[in-house]
Amino acid sequence: MTVIEIESLTKSYQANRAVHGLSLRVEQGEIFGIAGPNGAGKTTVVECASGLRRPDGGTVRVLGLDPRTQRRELLQRIGAQLQEAALPDALRVGEALRMYAALYDRPADWRVLLDDWGLADKKRASFGSLSGGWKQRLFIALALVGNPEVVFLDELTTGLDPIARRTTWGLIRELRDRGVTVVLVTHFMDEAEALCDRIAIVDHGRVIAEDTPAALIAKQHSDSLEDAFFALTGRTLS
Ligand SMILES: Nc1ncnc2c1ncn2[C@@H]1O[C@H](COP(=O)(O)OP(=O)(O)OP(=O)(O)O)[C@@H](O)[C@H]1O
Ligand SMILES: [Mg+2]
Question: Which of 27, 68, 140, 182 to pair with 167, CA 20 to 30 A apart?
Answer without folding.
Answer: 27
